[in-house]
Design goal:
Strand content: 25-35%
Strand order of the largest sheet: 11-9-23-25-26
Main location: secreted
Number of helices: 4
InterPro entries: ADAMTS_ADAMTS-like, PLAC, TSP1_rpt, TSP1_rpt_sf
Oligomer: single chain
Subcellular location: Secreted
Organism: Oreochromis aureus
Pfam families: PLAC (PF08686), TSP1_ADAMTS (PF19030)
Structural class: mainly beta
Number of domains: 4
Largest sheet: 5 strands, antiparallel
Distance between the termini: 24 Å
Shape: elongated
Length: 380
Amino acid sequence: MNNCFQFWKAAQSFVTCVRYDGVEVHDMYCDALTRPEPVHDFCIGRECQPRWEASSWSECSRTCGEGFQFRQVRCWKMLSPGLDSSVYSDLCTMADLERPVERRACKSPACGPQWEVAEWMECPAKCGRKAQVARDVRCSDETRPCDPLTKPPNVKNCTGPPCERHWTVSEWGPCSGSCGQGKMVRHVYCKAPEGRVVPENQCSAENKPLAIHPCGDRDCAPHWLSQDWERCNTTCGRGVKRRIVLCVGISGGKFQIFDEEACVVNEKPEEENTCFERPCFKWYTTPWSECTKTCGIGVRMRDVKCYQGRELVRGCDPLTKPVAKQTCTLQPCPTEPPDESCQDRPSTNCLLALKVNLCSHWYYSKACCHSCRAVRPPAS
């Protein structure tokens, strides 16, 4: 027997075993001890009222610790004698019927220590080159060690962006003053071939055009000219920022770069400084759980936690939060082949069912199994 949850469905004097996704299956897949008594005279002389029906609970989403169980909840209504069908949930909601819960917590034996991993950092490699990228890996329990044999890797190889990225510049702005003080500024961008602006580290730093240029007179003695600070080399915590400082001047109206000795060496501005970005809040995730199903479509879970150092905090960016739940698609659940010797139920108008194309409905496919064989698509 497969583990995809099944439940009994009763309609008028007819009880069937229905799979978690609403497909009717053989009675062997349902627990005989829970088989309901057939429902007689569901509604007589009045319009049938809708009702909520819930499937059996799935297995716990985690094999240890706290997890969740799921089930399907659908609104059902007897539309006509012999036609009991799922309907829009609004009908049950408007009837002020309390919807059964679709998720509940479940607890398995306590988990041992688990490895928790942060997201991979940005690849530091320049275009077309290879490097290594790292991530933080930590054990969830400080008092007991995690199994070193199952430790996820904290370093992997990475390749820099394609080298067709190139620098582009805007027009120079106006001169801000006289010789030695005057500067012209322009914007410098790193762009992909399709014109999209990308991070500057995807272009070669060696040939980055100047964003700040001296100006003021036709001849200007050598002096120090500082470019803008580059981005801090860390995304959180304390890091280092750098900038280009050049000894430059203007000779005969032309810009010129001089050796550093041509400028006053002890007046050279700093090329490197410390910087501090936001506190280091990091998302960590545990390994994925087993799928909640063994066939069909299920769910798998993992814990997602925010840490600052060793402390659990709430400061991580919710926009970068890793997903904690995702579906898992397995092989289709088994169904029984059609019974070639079945007979139509005498109490059901199977000619009408064929005429109005009701053979796809679970009830008529069973009650009119002989007649519906004619419209059933051949097995592939």
